[in-house]
Records
---
Amino acid sequence: QVQLVESGGGLVQPGGSLRLSCAASGISFGIYVMGWYRQAPGNQRELVAAITGGGSTNYGDSVKGRFTISRDNAKNTVYLQMNNLNPEDTAVYYCNARNPVFTRNNYWGPGSQVTVSS
């Protein structure tokens, strides 16, 4: 049974930082592309950042230079360090695990709310 469990969301002031974590189980973590997506009310879910098993990264344009994705394959965990947050970053953030070969093996966490407000 595959499980993705996000943690680290919450309320932060503009300009602040948060770190999200996603612990995975039930998959061969090291071969999966791990990603963070977000969805704000009324908007489509969008890619925030992704990282391959080998450590190559990809970022959405709106977060480049502010967010950093990383992974610890020994801990089956992916992280999203978010700096210089602004109200437009307010959304539910979802962890994703995708097998790059068997792409039907695509899993989502339940989501973690991030709210940026003064």
---
Amino acid sequence: QVQLAESGGGWVQPGGSLRLSCAASGSTRSPSVMTWYRQTPGNQRELVAFMTKDGMKNYGSSVKDRFTVFRDRAGTTELLRMQMDDLKPEDTATYYCNVRIADREYWGHGTQVTVSS
């Protein structure tokens, strides 16, 4: 049973930084893609950034040059981290981790990021 655990959310002032982590465990296979999405009330989930198993990365236009994703592994747990710099109030959202393993997708429960003064 694949489990996702997100961490690192919180409150930060504009211009500040946070680092989110997503830990995927319970599978012997490495996720082909690991993705961060975000969502605000009343809106659809927005793709923030993803990284493939082969190291390819892609970012949403609103976060490019401010956010960076990278992956590593601790035992059988695959980790997707996202460094978020120069945060803006419009980055306020619930951030969700999504992983794709074989032909299945898994979602985390989300972590809240609030950017305000």
---
Amino acid sequence: QLQVAESGGGLVQAGGSLRLSCVGSGSVNIRTMGWYFQAPGKQRELIAAVSSLGPYYADSVKGRFTIASDNAKNTAYLEMNNLKPEDTGVYYCNPFVTFTPYTYDHWGQGTQVTVSS
């Protein structure tokens, strides 16, 4: 069972901000972490990640979203600014970083973000 817990989602107006949290437990090391986004009716996609190779941001979030972490708390964060209605969906974190998340079966419950226009 994947030992991460996402939180911090909610309802926000366009242009607003949210900070999502991802708490790792057990053997999960948050130094390598991917953030994934699944819009309604669409496949899950990698939008941001941090690893030994450095940070990655998808074009859709570059300049608006930032990954941060607190190693002492084993917690990763996704700071989301200037949110848009198209950012509405479920966000997941996963220490397994992949551009094909639809091929992977182990996920947490995710956290819902709704951006109103």
